Amino acid sequence: MSDLGHVLVLAGGLSHERDVSLRSGRRVAESLREVGVDVSQRDADADLIVTLRNDPPAAVFPLLHGVQGEDGAIQQILTLLDLPYVGSPAGSCRQTFDKPISKGLLEKAGLNTPPGVVLSQSTFRELGAAALLDALVGRIGLPLVVKPSRGGSALGSSLVNDAADLPSAMVECFAYGDSAMIERKIEGSEVSVSVVDTGDGPVALPAVEIVAESGTYDYHARYTAGTTEYFVPARLPSAVADDVAQAAVRAHRTLGLRDVSRTDMIVDSSGTPWLLDVNVAPGMTETSLLPQSVRAAGIGLGELARDLLAAAVKRHAEA
Amino acid sequence: MGQYPDAQRRNTAAAVSSTGSKLDSYVDRYATRTHGMTASEVRSLFAVASRPEVVSLAGGMPNISGLPLDVVGSLLSELIEKRGTTALQYGSGQGDPQLREQICDVMRPVGVHGHPDDVTVTVGSQQALDLITRIFIDPGDVILAEAPSYVGALSTFRSYQADVVHVEMDDDGLVPERVRQAIATVQASGRTIKFLYTIPNYHNPAGVTLTAQRRQEILGICQDAGVLIVEDDPYGLLGFDGDVPRAMRADDPEGVIYLGSFSKTFAPGFRVGWTLAPHAVREKLVLAAESSVLCPPAFSQLAVSEYLSGHDWRGQVKAFRELYRERCDAMLGALDDLMPAGAHWTRPRGGFYVWLTLPAGLDTKAMLPRAVTNRVAYVPGTAFYADGFGSRSMRLSFCYPTPDRIREGVRRLAQVIEQEMELRAAFGAAGASQRPGLDAPAPDQA
Predict the structure, then answer these.
(1) Where, by residue number, does Mg(2+) 1 bind (chain A) (predicted)?
(2) Is the pTM above the cut of 0.90?
């Protein structure tokens, strides 16, 4: 049995990604058990705070995806309760989960992100959607990608090849939130790089290259085994692989992230990485990307989770 | 922790020759019929619907809180004490003989006088659907089904690669003339119609009931065309006014396979349903059932049998009817008060469901994430069509939440619809075309 003591995996919540979160939680909890950690899993519900206060675990591994899990709320609560936890500080989560804010910070740090704009639902309503969409297409060009400013698992995201499909893509996007990002679709290889830091500084794990059968890495392609082909490490020349790894570590540092993150990007034909999204609570399901990188690195998921928890406990003790 | 820097070296090593993985070693070996079995956003959103914060008008869970659980507990305890060696043993593939006799009694109120030999007990009527489809359908065969139809049936039909042709309904159920036209069109194309699948009473998902006159017309049309009818009747005893419509099977024992269930009149946890089929069909059903599950669970069958013989089950059904009527009234009242102009909905006289169709341009599947954010859930209409129609409609269940929660759920839904209408108005996003019938009634019906 590990000397960590009893740790808690938090999964579920009320976001649109509840199902993914529950699967991530089960996977991590099971992996921790396999390496001898005393672990339990619970939902983030109305009894959570009372439970954490009455029976505080040695450390918490939050695997809540979406709002509450990635917008800094749960991290704020764990800090308030003075509990060690795996993951980034609340403020870093908040700015990373908000894609427009993180995009601005990444660009300021000299990292490439696709040209695009951020617009709210009310802006379209008040200024006239048709003219605005027309201007958008003129400025950004087609194809383009529409996605909610906050959220994950590609929920509410659409690839738009034809301007006639843009209004319905916007409506679907706004069903997930009040703000949308519209970005130019960068052609190239879709690559995801996980970064972990168990106390010795952030390290990029082998990049995963994603080739979705349908051509779009949407919810279906993410969570249905057999519909997407993954190459780990990504099929990149070593110099490009190095650039990609450095970009992910720079993104991790720029956004003030801690312990673990995952950066999704497109590598264009010239080898330039374009950052699409940075995740503070990467998925841990059977088809998720970080576990594939961990495996390719020759590390067990349970070992990694245990080391991250141990680092969190140490950090807390030293604070 | 020294292994982590090494991980980075693995990343930057030349990897152009990396081989891919689809994370499923058997990806090329699955049967064609599994191709539709994939992850979906809608299914994922239902994970949130199960949380108590959300008013779920989505699921069709019978309200078993209305059952006298103490009585059921004593009954089960006594069953094990007195008949445990039978209840915990394998049984007959066709089902327990005493239960089959009791099932014949249960069917009498709907006018069906069946013989126990023609009854096959199944694991819920869902298994009956599976068995019937298995013995009749070759890939590409046509099944006629209502528009919309029960999602669980469509899923079974899809898994046997049937081609479902939907037939228009209105507030009086299936439209006979449309049945006639559909049969003619399919037959003219040289394809084979294996059966018409129908839920004539308190339809799932539409909530409508087929009129007595139309039952006769449709029986006549199908007899003339040689089309078998599969009559699924899980809700027949749950008419709010105690009305028990006469089953189609009552008037055509050779042309109709009747499906019944104890899931709504007793409890779904036992998973006990049945079919009453013409003799030759029954023979095949029993053989198919044996190859599927050997025998239906003896424990569940004997529990249902004890319940029927030792408890006032008719009184319990009456209590269920009252419970569901109160909930349906709450939903219809809230819809009357809160739905926008251009929305229309059915007015059930029994069962569990209301079919709501929203004003033109709205898409209930695209709207579902907004609804879940607003803590209310429903099932988008497209789930009840095999052909992509139904995008403006949704199924609302009134069976489970309390009347107050139903009113609150409809209130939240009305807000969501209002927000979505504003958004659609801003973008002018065109909605999908609608199938005539319940989803797009003539202007005077709207």
Answers:
(1) 264
(2) yes
